[in-house]
Amino acid sequence: MEVFEVTCWHQTLAARIGLRLGGMATLSLAWLAGARLYAEVHAQPARAATPGELGLCAVVVGCLLAGNALLVVGPGLWARVSVPGRWFPEPTARRGRSGR
């Protein structure tokens, strides 16, 4: 009788390498977007930020967050963690509308 070991997709070597490479690619995208944003901001005289520039700032921040998470933590993002029972409140009797 053969026994097969079940592994999650994120525990394979290819997935670990792929997640880290994806993190580096995402950080590269953040760098490119940041360079573009820097060029836009410093090419103009002082003025209020446009919605496009604010959106580009959001893209840079999102790429930095996701890229660092993938690069540093990698497959650990999908690791199972135990949650204490205190975070699951027991159901209580339904109260009236007055809240008393």
Structure notes:
With 100 residues, the chain is mostly helical. It has a domain at 32-74. It is 54% helix and 0% strand. It has helices at 13-43, 51-73. It is flat. It starts with 12 loop residues before the first helix and ends in a 27-residue tail after the last helix.
Q: Tell me how many strands there are.
A: 0
The structural class is: mainly alpha
Roughly what percent helix? 40-55%
Secondary structure tally, helices: 2
Strand content bin? under 5%
Along the chain, the helix and strand elements come as HH
Uncertain regions spanning at least 5 consecutive residues: none
Main beta sheet strand tally, sense and closure: none
Overall, the morphology is flat
Measure the end-to-end span: 62 Å
Instruction: Summarize model confidence as the mean pLDDT.
Output: 85
Mind telling me the C-alpha Rg?
A: 23 Å
Structural topology:
Layout: H1 13-43, H2 51-73
Helix pairs in contact: 1-2
Descriptive labels:
100 residues, mainly alpha
Could you provide a short overview of the structure?
The chain is mainly α and 100 residues long. It is built from 2 helices and no strands.
